[in-house]
Specification:
Elements (H helix, E strand, L loop, with lengths): L18 E5 L8 H10 L9 E3 L5 E3 L16 E6 L10 H18 L6 E3 H4 L11 H9 L3 E3 L10 E3 L11 H11 L2 H8 L5 H13 L8 H13 L13 H12 L3
Parallel strand pairs: 1-4, 1-5, 2-4
Antiparallel strand pairs: 2-3, 6-7
Length: 262
């Protein structure tokens, strides 16, 4: 978090933070300094938001724990947290969205809040903020599912185990491969849970295990079909299990059959 040096008018500390209100500035590009100058020119003490995430992923503390000016009649016990963009006309970038989720979670933990304490500006005022294209339902799921606790039924004296949601897992380049395995080997409930960002990491590893243990396909890849058909016809192979692994002993038999002209 960055706390820039800004000129402020009079500020009043928040007694107790009870809510977080989510905003956008309704501008595709608008820096924290532009917001601060605009709000000062309106006669305010400075930027009305408490915190601001820009599209360059820099997260700025503006009013911080001082009463903001971001939602009329709703500022005394709330933090106004804003993400750069105009989400009435654009979709939020995925990496920016996940960064925003992370920063809001940190604020929730710091002030002992839950997802039920997080609101849209439009929930408390006559506005479309944070925009019709802001993925609010997914945002609420993600800020509320940082971790899931499951009791261990067969060992009741053991402490509960925390499973981090698969939505929090850093998939990196393996995400598409996992989705391919899930679509082939996951059941409908696992696929639905993943779609809703509710698949636990433990269940995700279960899907991967099913993929590893699954019976190999009986379909011959097109690149190998001509050779497979010829060797099957000659009796080198019996035509079964084209994608199973082969042992060294089996390889010796195959080689001998080829040398014998089969």
């Amino acid at each position: 978090m960055i706390k820039p040096t800004l000129r402020w008018g009079s500020l009043t500390p928040i007694g107790q933070v009870r809510r977080i209100i989510i905003h956008h500035p309704a501008a595709v590009r608008y820096s924290y300094l532009q917001i601060h100058n605009q709000h000062r020119n309106q006669g305010w003490s400075g930027a009305g938001y408490n915190y601001y995430l820009q599209k360059n992923h820099e997260f700025y503390e503006l009013r911080g724990l001082n009463v903001g000016a971001h939602a009329a009649n709703e500022n005394s016990d709330s933090l106004g947290v804003c993400v750069e963009g105009n989400y009435d006309v654009e979709n939020i970038n995925e990496s920016l969205f996940l960064r925003f989720v992370d920063e809001v979670r940190k604020l929730m933990r710091k002030h002992g809040l839950t997802a039920n304490d997080v609101y849209r500006h439009s929930d408390v005022g006559n506005t479309s903020c944070p925009g019709g294209y802001f993925p609010w339902a997914r945002f609420k799921r993600l800020i509320g599912q940082a971790e899931e606790v499951k009791s261990i039924v067969h060992e009741p004296k053991q402490e509960e185990v925390i499973y981090v949601k698969a939505g929090d897992f850093q998939w990196a380049s393996g995400k598409e491969r996992f989705e391919h395995i899930l679509n082939r080997h996951g059941n409908s409930s696992e696929q639905e849970a993943y779609k809703n960002d509710e698949l636990t990491v433990s269940d995700a590893f279960g899907v991967l295990a099913k993929g590893v243990l699954a019976e190999p396909s009986q379909t011959v890849p097109e690149a190998h079909k001509e050779a497979w058909d010829e060797y099957t016809e000659r009796g080198v192979y019996n035509g079964k299990n084209p994608n199973h692994p082969i042992t060294r002993a089996q390889h010796a038999t195959v080689t001998k059959r080829i040398e014998d002209g089969m």
